[in-house]
Amino acid sequence: MSEAWQRGWWAGAQALGSPNFGARPAHTAIDLVVVHSISLPPGEFGGDAVERLFTNRLDWDAHPYFQTIRGIEVSAHFFVRRDGRVQQFVSTLDRAWHAGRSAWRGRENCNDFSIGIELEGLEGGTFEDAQYTALARVFRALAAHHPLTQVVGHEHIAPGRKQDPGAGFDWCRLRHTLGWSATCFPEVEKKFIGSAPAMPSNSA
User: Which Gene3D superfamilies match (predicted)?
Assistant: First the structure.
């Protein structure tokens, strides 16, 4: 299930290199995945605006909303479209610019040790079956390539500042599809706070 990797690029995704990345701190274990949601303009799906945003090619004058984010330079490692297609913008070995000001379990600057996955969708909205299927495939590949221990949403690492992917994302569905320990997921964080999370099962 791992499929092929080459220097942090996954063969299961369309490669679209972003200039918005940097080096991770030396000897950093990449053990966290952060799930986001994005659509540009908000609530509109299927276009190439997100792709253009992540590659610094967005026409800021093409839509009034784009003026509110004019000049921003961001990226994610992966983008999962509504139809399940997966695009990759940054090698998982590098630091993508997706989390911003963030912290998880006492560690700040989550970009340093995490992989960012954007789902095409509206914050708080629901997601498509094809996206859950694709997301599980990405997670299995990642778990075979990196020492993952936790999966969270942007809302969990930047509470009060971010709310994605939001209430419409089905964490239980993802967990049951993968067959990973509940301690890897945010809905049980309060129960297991202070305990070591279980490693994902790559055989699931």
Answer: Peptidoglycan recognition protein-like (3.40.80.10)
- Nearest by Cα to 171 from 204, 127, 122, 110: 127
Rounded (5°) CA angle 15-22-109 = 115
Show which residues are catalytic.
Answer: 118
Strand 32-38: give its sheet, edge to edge: 14-15, 86-88, 78-80, 114-120, 32-38, 150-153
Length of the chain counted residue by residue? 204
Q: Let me know if 170 is exposed, middle or buried by CB neighbors in 10 A (0-12, 13-18, 19+).
A: middle
pLDDT digits (tens, 9 = 90+) for 27-50: 999 999 999 999 999 999 999 999
What is the architecture, at CATH level 2, of domain 5-20+31-192?
3-Layer(aba) Sandwich (3.40)
